[in-house]
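Continued from yesterday's entry.
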Amino acid sequence: MQKEDCFYLGKIVSKFSFKGELLIKVDSDDPEQYLELESVFVEYRKNLIPFFIDRISLQKSQLLRVKFEDIDTEEDANDLLKKEVYLPLEMLPELDDDQFYYHEIIGFKVIDKAHGEIGIIKSVIDNSAQPLFDISYQEKQILIPINDDFIEKLDKDNHTIYLNTPEGLITMYLE
């Protein structure tokens, strides 16, 4: 399995017991939907390695308590700490028409209410306090916060997103 065929589920943040149990901090508003998992992919030495699940339960609101097959000791569990966990893209839950996953909108055309067409989404920057659309426009980079108040319409069929950004936000990139 290749990383580009997967989505980020979360990160192994700590051990839970001396018998190899681990806690995965899930990057989801609804971690309960992952309680039936049979396996996950763990990024280990730049490869995605499948790990099969013996037991899984919810631990607090965003944590999955997981016991992997063949991970039976504290030492085994230590080796997986701080590793990222992935699932195949086809396991992503269906979204409503007005919702999107970040990977879905790469390449979408962006049209702003005041400025018209402002470019194409190159990527989503998700490592800041607020995720940002990274838009390419005439060899310039425009960064716009992903904010429900700015998004007027999402047209998945035509790969277009319509925005109504605050005055001055886009202008500062074009000057």
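--- second protein ---
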Amino acid sequence: MGVRNQTQVVEFVFLGFSGIAYGHTYLFLVFLAIYLVTILGNLMIFTVIQLDSSLHTPMYYFLSHLSCLDICISSVTIPKILLNFLCQRQTIPYNQCMAQMFFFLSFTGTEAAMLAVMAYDRYAAICKPLHYSRLVSTKVCILLASATWVWGFLDAALHTALSSKLSFCGVNQIHHIFCDLPPLMKIACGDTRTNEMITHVASIFMGLSPFLVVILSYFYILSTILRIPSNTRRQKAFSTCTSHIIVVTIYFGNGLLNYNQPSTGYSLETDTLVSTMYCIVPPMLNPLIYSLRNKEVKEGLRKMLHNQ
């Protein structure tokens, strides 16, 4: 195997599916089906929002960004997995690995921030209804959406720059199904304490901040809802949040499992399952959650299909 500068490997080998000797054809079909459902589902949500003028509101504006992010996250990881199944070689060149990690971290970081912005939108709608049009005006929506994308790409740029400084001493086997920061750190040689410290600090700030915004927003939302005297109005207010709560729970729950696994005690099969749940399942489920639980989206979809 080739080595660059005696320390940097030329390509990496994914071990995530190494325990599966047979059945790669079935795995290819499963991942292909997941990818198609993800792309079609999120494209459907995005198209309905663009075509239905009644959905041209801040909540659905942010939802359209979320759909774009889900398409991007899936497209960064699944096509390479499918190609490796076809070629029967679970490898990726070094430069492609760095690029895959950069874009994956960019889009997942942006999605975390976007979910926080969507929580703020629900806070403004329920807790500050008289000031909603000012708090979430068109200009504010554009600024918030732009800020989330910048947030995600700056976070990814930092992590990728740190990873590019790592040396691997010829070790190129990644216990994962795509290039991500934790598995690369595990196989790096030399003293990585500085990298780990900076990575943890950045992860806490960039990853924990959106989660705290979500928690704080829903604390005020719940307090406001509980003060509503009418049960009907209370249920109606809470129903506007249920889809977002489910998506947030799935996203941050899977993220917590993926990035906070113990260093020992987890099998490679468990690591692979957790990684798959984090990078593949949420983008597929998000459009299903919003389309099945949201009357406005279902009505927009019905109108779109009726006009075809």
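The longest helix spans residues 94-127. The CA atoms of residues 32 and 252 lie 25 Å apart. Will compare against the first tomorrow.
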